[in-house]
């Protein structure tokens, strides 16, 4: 049996970003650990409000672009803790935004790997569906094929409420293993096969998340392989820029390459989204999780220069 954690209490370190679109909340675990949630206001999409929730305390997947890449342990949050985190986040978020968070999506996209805690995540989702006004549920996973197979056995009314996202970030197995060591020995083909079955059963396209890293996964060869990786009828692709984290020399790709990926993927029939970057300045963006070493001034670096022009060419922004 895992360690039993006490009730998680929000600290006084809650922060709101400079443009009023994101709030980061920190919750005390121990002198060595905090976990965080965030509330994002995204007026360009539906639902407009998103709570990003952790699924574990810590993470062992060691993704190179993540603030938790050096962690070596993870503890599952139980159902009571997950629901309490979401409830506290919603309550504090409504006070800081000074409005009701509605319509609201809850996404398990924060600290930890949700499918490694599937025994608590699925009952939590079931409760949220039955007992609350949550409009939508999101899960972001690195894609353990065995755990994905387990999703196929859950009740269809639960599966149909989940918007599933795969942290792909590379179209070749060996490159993905280097970027995301926790995926080693999982073949992309096996992962895509499981996800395709889920997409057909839930009747919802699965999102393939792809952070463009300069000189790593932004080559012409990577683009060609990404184009052929899945069926556009069952998948869409979200291209994102890198959110800054401490102690890494990774860089985002440039605007020219971002545009090339967007346009070529669109030509091949994919729906393509450009990931927005709400909360980067308060370390509430994707990958900026765990303890806050420094609050970075990134207010003028939300996207590569010129990326907003993609909206006029049919791009949609997404969290």
Protein topology:
Blueprint: E1 9-10, E2 15-16, E3 22-28, E4 34-41, E5 49-52, E6 56-58, E7 74-76, H1 79-97, E8 104-108, H2 118-131, E9 136-141, H3 145-151, H4 156-159, E10 162-167, H5 173-179, H6 188-202, E11 206-211, H7 220-227, E12 235-240, H8 255-267, E13 272-275, E14 316-318
Parallel strand pairs: 5-8, 8-9, 9-10, 10-11, 11-12, 12-13, 13-14
Antiparallel strand pairs: 1-3, 2-3, 3-4, 4-5, 6-7
In CATH's first tier, which class applies? Alpha Beta
- Rg calculated over all Cα atoms: 18 Å
The overall strand count is 14
The helix-strand sequence is: EEEEEEEHEHEHHEHHEHEHEE
Strand content: 15-25%
Decide which structural class fits the backbone. alpha/beta
For the record, the count of structural domains works out to: 1
Question: Do you know the CATH topology?
Answer: TIM Barrel
Taking all residues together, what is the mean pLDDT?
A: 80
CATH architecture: Alpha-Beta Barrel
Helix content: 25-40%
- Multimerization status: single chain
User: In DSSP terms, counting alpha (H) and pi (I) runs of 4 or more, how many helices?
Assistant: 8
Question: What's the CATH H-level superfamily name?
Answer: Aldolase class I
Overall, the morphology is: globular
């Amino acid at each position: 049996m895992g360690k039993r954690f006490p009730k998680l209490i929000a600290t006084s370190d809650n922060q709101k970003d400079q443009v009023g679109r994101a709030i980061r909340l920190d919750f005390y675990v121990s002198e060595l650990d905090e976990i965080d949630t965030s509330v994002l206001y995204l007026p360009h999409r539906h639902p407009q409000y998103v709570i990003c929730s952790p699924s574990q305390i810590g993470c062992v997947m060691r993704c190179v672009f993540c603030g938790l890449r050096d962690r070596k342990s993870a503890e599952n949050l139980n159902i009571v803790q997950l629901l309490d985190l979401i409830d506290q986040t919603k309550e504090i978020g409504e006070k800081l935004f000074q409005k009701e968070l509605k319509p609201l999506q809850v996404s398990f996209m924060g600290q930890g790997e949700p499918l490694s805690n599937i025994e608590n995540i699925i009952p939590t989702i079931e409760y949220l569906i039955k007992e609350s006004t949550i409009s939508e549920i999101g899960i972001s996973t690195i894609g353990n094929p065995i755990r994905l197979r387990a999703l196929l056995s859950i009740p269809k009314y639960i599966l149909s409420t989940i918007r599933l996202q795969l942290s792909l970030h590379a179209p070749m197995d060996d490159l993905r293993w280097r970027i995301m060591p926790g995926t080693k020995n999982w073949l992309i083909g096996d992962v895509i096969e499981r996800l395709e079955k889920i997409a057909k059963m839930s009747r919802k396209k699965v999102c393939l998340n792809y952070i463009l890293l300069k000189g790593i996964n932004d080559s012409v060869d990577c683009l060609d392989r990404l184009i052929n990786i899945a069926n556009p009828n069952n998948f869409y692709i979200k291209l994102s820029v890198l959110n800054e984290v401490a102690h890494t020399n990774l860089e985002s790709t440039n605007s020219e390459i971002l545009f090339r990926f967007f346009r070529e993927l669109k030509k091949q029939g994919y729906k393509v989204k450009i990931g927005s970057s709400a909360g980067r300045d308060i370390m509430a963006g994707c990958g900026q999780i765990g303890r806050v070493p420094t609050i970075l001034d990134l207010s003028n670096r939300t996207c590569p220069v010129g990326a907003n022009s993609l909206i006029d060419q049919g791009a949609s922004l997404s969290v």
